[in-house]
Design goal:
- This protein is of the alpha+beta class.
- The protein has two domains: 315 residues, no CATH class; 61 residues, no CATH class.
- The chain contains twelve helices and nine strands.
- Strands 2-3-4-5-1-6-9-8-7 form a nine-stranded mixed sheet.
- α7 runs antiparallel to α8, α7 runs parallel beside α9 and α10 runs antiparallel to α12.
- It is elongated.
- It starts with a strand and ends with a helix.
Length: 406
C-alpha cells in the first residue's frame, strides 16, 4: 500500500535564556492579524487562544530539501519542508521538523520514520538529514545554553526527557483499506511497524486490542486516529487537502504542541525537584503559576478539539505527571511545615518554662516578704526551696488534670 505521509519529528529542551537572533538566522515569526485572533477566539476559549498565539511564539525556517534513506538497497525519498520552533514560557523550546513522503510504500515510510526518530542511529547514519534539519536547531540550543552545556554532534540533548523524537503524522491513502484491517493499519503506523494485513505481527492480539481500546479515535467516517506516548497518528482515505491543512494548524500546531509544552514543563520541574537544584518552595510557586496560567479543563467551544486534546493528554500522561509531582511537592512542604511547627512548639515550651519559673520565683519571694521564711523554716534558703517546690508540684498537678480532662 502506498501512502502520503506528512510527519513532524518533535523535540524539546529547557533553555537557560531566551532564543535571541532567530530572525538573523532566517527564522520567520508567525504573527497573527487581528482578524485571525478573533477567529481563534471564536473557535477556542480566549485563554487558550491567547496562550498559543501570544505566549507561545512560533518561528519557522524553510528548508525544502529532498532527502532519502536506503531501505534494503532501495531509496526511500522524502522532502524536508521546514523546521518550526516554539519559544514557550519558562524558557522552554519546542521544535518540529516537517517531512513529506509522497506516494511511498507504507512499510518504507514506517521504517524511515523509526530510523529517523531514534537517536542511536545518528552515530553512523543520517548525516544528510542532520546537516539539513538538525544543525539549525543545534545552533539555537547552543545559543540558549551556558558554555559548558553546548555540544557539537550529540543530538541526544535535543529531547531532554527521552531517547527519541516524538512524531505527529497525518497519513492519506487513495487505496482501499481491507475491511476489518483499519485499526491494525493505524496501530502499525503509530508504532512505526511493518504492516501485514489482518496480523498483529510480533505483538500479542490482546495487547494490541488493549491499546486500541484505550487510544483509538473514531468520530466521523473517512478518518480515524490513535494517540500513544511517542506518536499521534491520523489516517484518512478521502479527506480534502484543505481539511488536512486545518488538522496541521489546529491539531498539531495548537493542541499537540500545547500538551507537549505541559509535558516538558512538568519533566523540568520534576528534574529540579529530584536533583535538588531548586528549592521546593520555588518549585511549588512555579507549578502553581503554571497551573493557573497554562492549564485548561477544556480548550474549545467545539467538541472535537476537546476530544483530540484529551486523547493527547492521556497518551502523554501529562495529568498523571502533574498529580504525582504536585503530591510529592505538597508532601515535602507538609513535612517542612510540621518540622517548623515542632521547632516553634519547642521554643514556646521553653518560653513557657521560663515564664513559669519566673512566676514561681516571684510567688516565693512574695511569700517571704509577707510571712518571712525565718519565722517558719530553719533558714531562708530552705524555706525558699520548699515553697518553690510546693508551687511547682501544684502547677504540675493542675496541668496533668487539665491534660487528662481533654
Amino acid at each position: 500500500m502506498k501512502i502520503t505521509n506528512t510527519a513532524f519529528l518533535c523535540g524539546y529542551f529547557s533553555a537557560n535564556r531566551p532564543a535571541e537572533g532567530l530572525k538573523d538566522g532566517g527564522w520567520v515569526k508567525r504573527d497573527y492579524t487581528e482578524d485571525e485572533r478573533i477567529k481563534l477566539q471564536n473557535y477556542y476559549f480566549p485563554e487558550f487562544a491567547q496562550c498559543m498565539s501570544d505566549e507561545i511564539e512560533l518561528y519557522s525556517l524553510p528548508i525544502n530539501q529532498a532527502c532519502s534513506l536506503d531501505f534494503n538497497g532501495e531509496k526511500v525519498p522524502f522532502l524536508i519542508e521546514d523546521i518550526r520552533l516554539w519559544e514557550a514560557p519558562f524558557h522552554i523550546i519546542l521544535y518540529a521538523v516537517k517531512l513529506r513522503f509522497e506516494e511511498v510504500e507504507f512499510n518504507h515510510v514506517t521504517w524511515s520514520l523509526n530510523s529517523l526518530r531514534n537517536f542511536v542511529f545518528y552515530k553512523d547514519m543520517h548525516r544528510q538529514f542532520m546537516d539539513a534539519a538538525l544543525l539549525p536547531i543545534m545552533e539555537i540550543y547552543n545559543k540558549t545554553m551556558d558554555a559548558n552545556e553546548t555540544f557539537d554532534n550529540d543530538i541526544s540533548w535535543l529531547a531532554e526527557s527521552g531517547n527519541k523524537f516524538k512524531i505527529f503524522q497525518i497519513i492519506k491513502t487513495n487505496e482501499p483499506i481491507e475491511k476489518g484491517d483499519e485499526q491494525l493499519l493505524i496501530y502499525d503506523a503509530a508504532t512505526l511497524a511493518a504492516h501485514t494485513p489482518h496480523s498483529t505481527g510480533i505483538n500479542s492480539p490482546t495487547y494490541v486490542q488493549h491499546v486500541l481500546d484505550e487510544h483509538f479515535i473514531s468520530i466521523f467516517s473517512g478518518w480515524s486516529g490513535i494517540a500513544i506516548l511517542d506518536t499521534f497518528t491520523l489516517l484518512t482515505t478521502d479527506t480534502p487537502d484543505w481539511v488536512i491543512g486545518n488538522w496541521e494548524k489546529d491539531y498539531f500546531e495548537k493542541i499537540y504542541i500545547y500538551q507537549l509544552f505541559r509535558k516538558v514543563f512538568l519533566y523540568s520541574v520534576n528534574l529540579h525537584y529530584r536533583r535538588r537544584t531548586e528549592d521546593v518552595l520555588a518549585l511549588e510557586k512555579k507549578l502553581s503559576l503554571f497551573e493557573q496560567n497554562h492549564s485548561y479543563p477544556a480548550i474549545s467551544y467545539n467538541f472535537l478539539p476537546n476530544i483530540i486534546n484529551s486523547s493527547i493528554e492521556k497518551s502523554l500522561n501529562t495529568q498523571r505527571d502533574y498529580d504525582q509531582l504536585n503530591r510529592m511537592i505538597n508532601k515535602e512542604l507538609d513535612i517542612r511545615r510540621n518540622q517548623a511547627e515542632e521547632k516553634t512548639n519547642h521554643f514556646l515550651t521553653f518560653l513557657t518554662c521560663l515564664t513559669l519559673f519566673s512566676a514561681i520565683y516571684d510567688a516565693a519571694s512574695l511569700f517571704n516578704d509577707s510571712f518571712g521564711y525565718a519565722e517558719v523554716f530553719p533558714d531562708d534558703h530552705f524555706g525558699f526551696r520548699f515553697v518553690s517546690t510546693i508551687l511547682l508540684v501544684v502547677v504540675l498537678i493542675v496541668y496533668l488534670f487539665l491534660a487528662k480532662k481533654k
